[in-house]
Amino acid sequence: MGSPFLARNLPQGLVDRNAPASHAPCMAAWRGIQEAGSPANDLLQAYLRVRSHTENLAAPLSPEDQQLQAMPDASPVKWHRAHTTWFFETFVLIPLGFAPYNADWGVLFNSYYEALGPRHHRPLRGLLSRPQAQEVTLWRRHVDEAMCGLLEGPLCDAPQWQAIVQLGLAHEQQHQELLLTDILAAFAQNPLQPAYCPAPPAKGTPAMALTWTEHPGGVLEVGADDNVSFAFDNERPRHRQWLQPFALANRLITVGEWVAFSADGGYQTPSLWLSEGLDWVRSGGALGPAYTRRQGNEVTVFGLAGTRVANHDEPILHLSFFEAEAMAAWMGARLPTEAEWETLAATTAAPTASNEQMPTGVPEPAATTDLCALYDSAWQWTRSSYAPYPGFRPAAGAIGEYNGKFMVNQQVLKGGSLFTPLGHSRPTYRNFWHPHTQFQATGVRLARDV
C-alpha cells in the first residue's frame, strides 16, 4: 500500500504547523484501510488503528477539558496524547536519526525514565498550558508521518524495531484507558457532573446466580510463553507454581451485594478489614467506592455517561483493594491469587484485537453461569503482591524502567475493564495499583478453597 504521507527522511520542519489540526493523517489512512481492505502489513495496520483511536477518544473533549488534572495520580488528556507521541519519537525515531520535533518538550512528556534525563513534576502536569492541544495534534501528525513511512519500508523486516513498536502500541493502549479514567476523575470534580458520552439504553438484565468454577490445583505453569507475539516483560519468565485446589466465582460482585455489605455495617466492622485498610477507612471516612453514593437501597453512580441510578445486578466498580478484601471476608470467601485467576482464565478465550469501540461507561450484568466478565467490566483485585517472577531481569537501558522498578507496595489486578481497549489484555497480563486506589475501574471476583 502506498501511504499518502510517506516520510523516509523527515527534517524538523516537514509538517506545516499552521495547517488545520482536527485529525491526525493516520486516522484517514486507517479509515481507508477499513473501507478498501488495503493490504497494509499487520504492524502498520495496528499502528494506524491504535493511534487513530487515541484521537477518537480525545475528540469529544475541548482544549479546556484536555488540560484538567484532578489529582497527582492522574494526568491531563493532552499530556497522555503528547507522552505516547514522545515514546515513539524517543525510542524509535531519534535512535534512527530523526530530529526531535521540539527538543525542549522531552522534559515535559518523559514520564518516569530516569535514564533519559529530568522530568516535569507529575502532580504539576495540569499546569502545562503550553504546548497547546493543537500543537500536540501537529506533533502527533509529524511523528505519524515518520512512523508510517518507516513501517512501510525499513522496519518491515527488522524484528528488533518491530518489538519496540509493539511495546509502544501496548503502551499507548494503556494510556487510552488512563485517558478515560483521568477525565472521569476530572469531570467528577465539576458540580455540573458533565458526561463524556451518552448513556446506552438501560437493559435491566438480571445478574446470574453466583456459582463456582473449580480447579484441582497442582504444579502449573504461569506467565507468558516465549512464542506469544507480544507480552510485557513483567509477564515473564514462564514458571511453575504449586496451587492448592480452588474455585473462582463465575461473575463479579454486584452493586446489590455491595449495598447489602454496606447496610450490614461493613465499613464499621473492624474484623472484616486488614489493619491498614481499617486505618484507610477511618482516616478518610470511607463509605463506599469512588463516584458512588448510597441512599437506602438506591445507588447513584457517576461515570463517563454522567450521573445515573445503578442497576443492582451490574458489577460494582471503583473499589479499593481494602474494600475488595473486606467484601470477600464478609461473603465468606477470599480474593484469588494471580496464579489462580490466570489458570482458570486461560481456559476461556480472551478478546482479540479489532476496531476499537468508543466506551459507554456502563458495565453490563453477567449473562451466563460460566466464567464471565473477565476482561470487559472491571479489573479484578488479587491477593498477590506485585513482585518479579523467578528469573525476571529488566531490559538494558531506559526501556528496562518500564515495569520492574514499580514492583513494591502494590497489588496485582487481572483481566480488564470497560475502559480497556478490546484485545489489549490476556490471562498473563499483570496490572498493578496501590491498595488504596479507587479511580480505576476496579472490582471483585471471589475465590475459595476447595
Q: How would you describe this protein?
A:
The protein is an alpha+beta fold. The protein is built from eleven helices and twelve strands. It has helices spanning 25-36, 42-58, 63-66, 77-93, 106-109, 133-152, 159-187, 255-263, 275-284, 321-330, 338-345, and strands at residues 212-215, 218-222, 239-243, 246-249, 292-295, 298-303, 306-309, 379-385, 411-415, 431-433, 442-443, 447-449. The protein has a four-stranded mixed sheet with strand order 10-9-8-11. The longest helix has 29 residues, at 159-187. The model is unreliable at 1-24 (pLDDT under 50).
Topology (SSEs and partners):
Elements: H1 25-36, H2 42-58, H3 63-66, H4 77-93, H5 106-109, H6 133-152, H7 159-187, E1 212-215, E2 218-222, E3 239-243, E4 246-249, H8 255-263, H9 275-284, E5 292-295, E6 298-303, E7 306-309, H10 321-330, H11 338-345, E8 379-385, E9 411-415, E10 431-433, E11 442-443, E12 447-449
Parallel strand pairs: 8-11
Antiparallel strand pairs: 1-4, 2-3, 4-12, 5-6, 6-7, 8-9, 9-10
Helix pairs in contact: 1-2, 2-6, 2-7, 4-6, 4-7
Provide a brief overview of the structure.
This protein is α+β, with helices and mostly antiparallel strands. It is built from eleven helices and twelve strands.
**Biggest β-sheet: count, sense, barrel?**
4 strands, mixed
Spatial arrangement of strands, main beta sheet: 10-9-8-11
Rg (C-alpha, Å): 22 Å
Helix content range: 25-40%
Overall mean confidence score, pLDDT: 90
3D shape:
globular
Please report the number of helical segments: 11
Uncertain segments of ≥5 residues (pLDDT<50)? 1-24
Helix/strand/pairing class, anyone? Answer: alpha+beta
Per DSSP E runs of 2 or more residues, the count of β-strands stands at 12
Order of helices and strands: HHHHHHHEEEEHHEEEHHEEEEE
- From the N-terminal CA to the C-terminal CA, the straight-line distance is 56 Å
Strand content: 5-15%
